[in-house]
Write a structure and sequence with these properties.
The chain is of the alpha+beta class and 196 residues long. Helices cover 47% and strands 14% of the residues. Helix 2 packs across helix 5. The protein starts with 9 loop residues before the first helix and ends in a 17-residue tail after the last strand.
């Protein structure tokens, strides 16, 4: 900071320095939220962790009701899913849902990360967007879609779940399904490495 005080006396200089310092701290504190934000502020608090945990339980219960095995939560897939949710939140903005907001942009990159970093041989992805914050509601939306429902019940071994809530109350969840083998419920590889 450039000193520009014309005051020469020692006590005035100290007083001026203290006032300048307090003013700088006040300005920094007032501006700090804008330093932390990007295009969209997203919540990453405890409620998203709880919603992701509940959605994981609901998906495993759904799989059990269809004769499927429970999926193991994988931190690497969680991170991949969370990053995609944050990307989608930045695309939605604060105004709510717009056409095409829920997408699978960059899915090929997520497949590469899942394969190279986490050693998964196959990856599937579901994305759901809603203003209802209930995991049961999110599961209901996914189950109504033939391709999302198939991803939930295929013979995956692991799951990663990301959740973001935008300031306007939109919940975005991405589920990454991973497997170390190339088998689906139908016995084909057609549905694998597909984003639904």
């Amino acid at each position: 900071m450039k000193k520009s005080s014309p005051i020469k006396a020692g006590s005035h200089r100290v007083l001026f320095s203290k006032i300048t310092c307090l003013l700088a701290i006040s300005l920094f504190t007032a501006c700090s939220p804008s330093l932390k934000t990007t295009r969209v502020q997203v919540s990453s608090g405890r409620s998203e962790v709880s919603l992701a945990d509940r959605l994981n339980q609901d998906i495993n219960s759904y799989r059990a009701s269809k004769g499927g095995a429970a999926l193991k939560r994988h931190q690497g897939l969680d991170a991949i899913a969370q990053k995609h949710c944050e990307y989608l939140a930045s695309q939605i903005g604060n105004g709510g849902l717009t056409g095409g907001s829920a997408n699978h942009d960059g899915f090929d990159g997520r497949v590469l990360v899942a394969r190279r970093v986490h050693r998964f041989s196959m990856l599937g992805e579901n994305v759901v967007v809603s203003t209802n914050h209930s995991s049961a509601h999110l599961l209901k939306i996914l189950a109504k879609s033939k391709s999302h429902e198939r991803n939930m019940r295929d013979k995956w071994t692991h799951i990663g779940i990301g959740v973001v809530t935008t300031p306007s109350g939109v919940v975005i969840s991405t589920q990454e399904f991973g497997s170390f083998q190339n088998i689906t419920a139908s016995g084909s590889e057609d549905s694998l490495n597909q984003a639904w």
